[in-house]
Amino acid sequence: MGSIGWVWVRYYANMYPMQSDEFEYWLTRAAQWSAHYRQTIDSRPVRSQVSPGDIRRQIDKEPPQKGESMETIFADFDAIIPPGMTHWQHPRFFAYFPSNSAPAAVVAEVLTTALSAQCMLWQTSPAATELEVCMIDWLRQATGLPDSFSGVLQDTASSSTLCAILTMREIASGFNTNRTGLFGHNVLRVYASEGTHSSIDKAMWIAGLGQENLVKVPTDEHYAMDVNALAQAINDDRQQGFTPAGIVVCVGGTSIGATDRVREICELARREGLYTHVDAAWAGSAMICPEYRHLWEGVELADSIVWNPHKWLGVPMECSAHFVRDPSLLIDTLSIQPAYLKTNQEDIVNFSEWSVQLGRRFRALKLWFLIRAYGIDGLQQRIRNHIKWSQQLAEQLQQENDFELTTAPILSLFSFRYTPQVIASIDKPNERAERLNQINRQLLEEINDDGDIYLTPSEHNGNYVIRFVAGQFDMQQQEIERAFTTITRVARSMNIE
Known about the structure:
Layout: H1 3-13, H2 20-40, H3 70-80, H4 103-115, H5 126-142, E1 150-154, H6 157-172, H7 177-180, E2 188-193, H8 198-206, E3 214-217, H9 227-239, E4 243-250, H10 262-272, E5 275-279, E6 304-307, H11 309-313, E7 320-324, H12 327-334, H13 364-398, E8 403-410, E9 413-418, H14 421-424, H15 429-450, E10 456-460, E11 463-469, H16 477-493
């Protein structure tokens, strides 16, 4: 469209709701804004600096009765929303785990939204279903899993784990509880390490199994599930009349990256007749690099596995790869077929039968774009860089007299704390521990208020610690160097008595 045409579009934009010609203009404006945002994102503070209620006060209390122009709406977006966002695509986002959005995959998301398909059945979107089958197999090959695994793209690891817990429940009850409920059945027990992610707890709630029936197994000196303690817990439960149902195995835990011994647990589970689910939500992306696969050695023995391409790999939210060795168990747990969902096609996959939700987005397209645009080699190099740079930062901090590593790097994750001499020299252990916790809380807040980097806390051995994880898709080594400068600068500028 020529410049005169755009003038008329903008003129009519102030008078009428969006017209079809105007749609192209606003897509272009949105794309231009998005590109500029990504180009200038490192000039923004990483964590939002607003206070609670600041954004709400800028939003009209009542919905408009008449439509407003896109010019007004877009201007309000630009003025109100970005300042109230924490910028997850910022190259110095070192908090939580990354939620990446590689540019090539963002383009795919635009196309997905334009298509706006409901991909619940093969016939509602054949290309979406068949591309998903292909993308799951690409991910399987990329991570070295055997071809006995197939899978589905869920929204998040929380949903994938819920599906696994529901499957454990149905297998242990002879596939009766969906029909009759849990009343009258033996109490079912699921096992996980003490450091398990909270999504396991929530899955127990939603599945109706109850928090008390998630058995938290002690960990060993490496913070991995104690396999002997696991075997004892299973035996004790059987002696008390409970029914063991399954085990959740952790690879790359959220707090410090703790990892269970996958092979030992899966072999025990096979002897005990229990379903195993491996939660590798963050760390799974690193398994595209063969040298890190020792972390989940024996994973081929698991019944199901989850990892999130939307974390470290570069796929925009939501995209969780849920692999299963026997899909019939998942389908028998989740499939429901009222007349309006039945189809006549044979030899097809209907992925709504593999998920809790009926409605499904076209998640596979962004994976297809991402992997083709960067290649497995390119994605591997990014992950290797993140791990190397994170380990370099850990070594730098360890060499400082007033810092200590509280946990060594696992992949690109480690934890540390500030230990200024004036606090570390306190004679009373309890007072010293409390003061160190207090000073590190203060340090974390001051770092995040500074805005140059973003970090989050954790707890380790009863102590407040600061987590660091590298993984933002476009970060460079200079971001790590800047993190070291910011951490030490802010720490040593604090007023400590």
